[in-house]
Amino acid sequence: MKARLTLLLIVLAGLITACLNAAPTQSKAPNYTPLIPSSTRHPSLLPSWTSTPPGPTTRTPIPRSLATRTASPPGITSTASMTSSILEDPFSLPWLDRLSFASESQPVTLFELRYDSTRWRAGSAFSPVGLGYQLIHRSIPGCSLAPTTGGNTTPSMTVESFEIILGGLHFVRGRAEENNAVVFVTYCAADTQTATCFIANPGSDATACLVDVETVLATLAFVPNPVYTVSPYTWTCRDEQDNPGLCQISYTLPLNAFTFSDTSESWAVGDDGYILHWDRASWSQNDGPATTALYAVSFTDPAHGWAAGSGGLILRWDGSDWLVDMPYSPPGQSPGGSTRTLYALDFLSPGDGWAAGAYSDPGGHVLPLLLHWGGTVWQSVSGLPTCQACGLNAVLAISAQDVWVAGGSHLGGLLWHWDGAAWQDFPVSGASWLYSLASGSGGELWAAGLELGTSPEGVPTQRGAILQWDGTAWEPLILPPNSGGFYAVAALPNGDLVVGGDVTLLRHERAWAFIATEIQGYGWIADLELAPDGSLYALTRSGHLFKLTP
Questions:
Q1: Does the pTM exceed 0.90?
Q2: 255-410+417-423: which CATH architecture?
């Protein structure tokens, strides 16, 4: 959630996109050191954030068949053959992006390519209108494919241009050489409605690189931007009587998180210690001891729940009352003179849970904060991987020997894993901050956040970021053009993925669609939660509670 990075943004303003290139390293097993909480209570400063502009308020359906591939005309020989195998391969992923000459941030038409994720990985690249993508070859150093608008040649280069056909589409291929070596190759494709160009850097093996490049380009198609197409799902806003537009559960204070305690009860928390409870009939305020912002809430059953937030405060629900497990500490009055904030909770059982966040020491250094609950006391977890100017925003406990935490640093996103013996730091590319983690029924793992960047002209920009765990590494997924960030992610029982934030997307069978809402002007989605019956709900910062409906 946006509020989670208030403390970090103060210290880390001006971040640019970067990735952690070091190989995963293991640290020593963590030591649990009991914390000495402060009993002093004092109101904390409320977090502030300027929301990014919302996406389009209207969506006009347009046909999906903007362009079709045609057979090669007589007399022209294709230099690369493309079968349908890459389209059907389980490792085939879509690359959906703006045309290279697009001038709008959300053009009506996009290009789509399919690439083999065992050969290529997604990387970031700037287009004239913001962050875009490129493909980077996994085994050929320096081999890459990206959109281009030209202007790449120098007077010392010789350029040879000729027409080829890839996958039934006409391309003009320009081969630039210098000192008898291939410097780059450009490919420009066009149909009756649009045109786009790509540049391939051949790397250490030009022949092999260009074969793989042309295999990808042979899948080129021009498709409608999904932001303007009809979504298969809608966020409905209804009250108990199914009246549309009436789903706001908080009118007085912003909300940050919610959860289900069982099939008939749920809880929501927000600023100023605000706690709401659903008791099978209606939402009502539940008085608790907190007076400052609560950012996370988690229940294992109706009698065991926790809420956490600013000042390192942790509350525990015993079935009838909220008790203080860790008291609120004013800024600079936590142990060691630090200032603490907890942003995430996750529990395996009433006796095994985690709390994640960040703290700043008296010198202004921001560092990660991770606590473990063993059933009687919260203990600080030490032995974490080393980072600078960093914090944690999410925790996902799969088992006692399988725990993930996510966050960000001045170098980019953080993803650390606990295997029951040691913490391991995994490199992250394509994300500057990570806010949410989710697991699927088939063992899939997902991380959601945002990517920050600065254009060559010095203009800052950002977009949502999604990473997928492939069993050995976290890989960024290519998304449709978007701006803002993602602050929540959830995996549906059918295998679909939903992300929410400044915009909200659905991933079905490796294809992305924007999700429409029944109302506008709700700010951003702060949390996503699956109900016990498998239904998905979204909580907005403005206090609306949506339900995902086909």
A1: no
A2: 7 Propeller (2.130)
